[in-house]
């Protein structure tokens, strides 16, 4: 009994470590997304440091900034948007597995491909909707370039940049889902190793 408990305890860190790596089926795109994720982790630290600076400036020096809140919000927003893409390549997103866990082998690989294709299509629609937001945030009705601003005292163009970033992340996410679908289908057909 004790030996079985030790094996189970050793398996938990392995499972956690496995979630921190991209799926082999995610290919080179998944590998790249995983590597870039460190920049966004640093972004969260910068957002926290910005808020700490604001507290110090406001309550110790009575000199609040006009940019700290918007900067920390912007850094947090792009990090959360990128987090969705990271979850796709690591297969760590939330899913309901009631029926999924009953399927194994080739049938599961085919199901994974179907799920990935469905997600690619829906992500494509989200990207199209995001493009409509980007057009309104970046161009005036006359067609002139103008970045949407926050309307605050600092009046930064952060809202436009978040919308642009969301659009590009959705395009990359669609590509990641297509890569996953392709590689799951290759596995189902018995072609072995995935890579693309």
From TrEMBL:
Subcellular location: Cell inner membrane
Keyword terms, alphabetized: Cell inner membrane, Cell membrane, Membrane, Transmembrane, Transmembrane helix, Transport
Keyword Transport applies: yes
GO molecular function terms noted in the UniProt entry: transmembrane transporter activity
Domain called Tripartite ATP-independent periplasmic transporters DctQ component: residue spans: 48-171
Keyword Ribosomal protein: no
Pfam family for this entry, one: DctQ
Topology versus the membrane: Multi-pass membrane protein
GO cellular component terms attached to this protein's record: plasma membrane
Residues that span the membrane, as ranges: 38-61, 73-89, 110-131, 164-185
Any Gene Ontology biological process: C4-dicarboxylate transport
Physiological role: Part of the tripartite ATP-independent periplasmic (TRAP) transport system.
Family per record: Belongs to the TRAP transporter small permease family.
Subunit description: The complex comprises the extracytoplasmic solute receptor protein and the two transmembrane proteins.
Name listed for the protein in its UniProt record: TRAP transporter small permease protein
């Amino acid at each position: 009994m004790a030996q079985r408990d030790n094996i189970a305890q050793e398996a938990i860190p392995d499972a956690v470590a496995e979630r921190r790596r991209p799926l082999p089926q995610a290919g080179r795109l998944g590998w790249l997304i995983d590597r870039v994720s460190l920049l966004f982790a640093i972004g969260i630290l910068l957002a926290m440091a910005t808020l700490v600076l604001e507290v110090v400036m406001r309550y110790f020096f009575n000199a609040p900034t006009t940019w700290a809140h918007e900067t920390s919000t912007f850094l947090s927003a792009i990090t959360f948007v990128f987090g969705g893409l990271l979850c796709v390549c690591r297969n760590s997103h939330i899913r309901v597995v009631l029926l999924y866990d009953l399927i194994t082998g080739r049938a599961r690989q085919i199901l994974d491909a179907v799920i990935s294709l469905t997600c690619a299509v829906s992500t494509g629609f989200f990207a199209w909707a995001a493009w409509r937001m980007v057009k309104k945030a970046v161009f005036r009705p006359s067609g002139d370039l103008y970045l949407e601003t926050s309307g605050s005292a600092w009046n930064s163009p952060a809202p436009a940049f978040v919308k642009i970033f969301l659009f590009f992340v959705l395009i990359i996410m669609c590509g990641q889902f297509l890569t996953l679908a392709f590689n799951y289908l290759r596995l189902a057909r018995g072609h072995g190793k995935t890579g693309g």
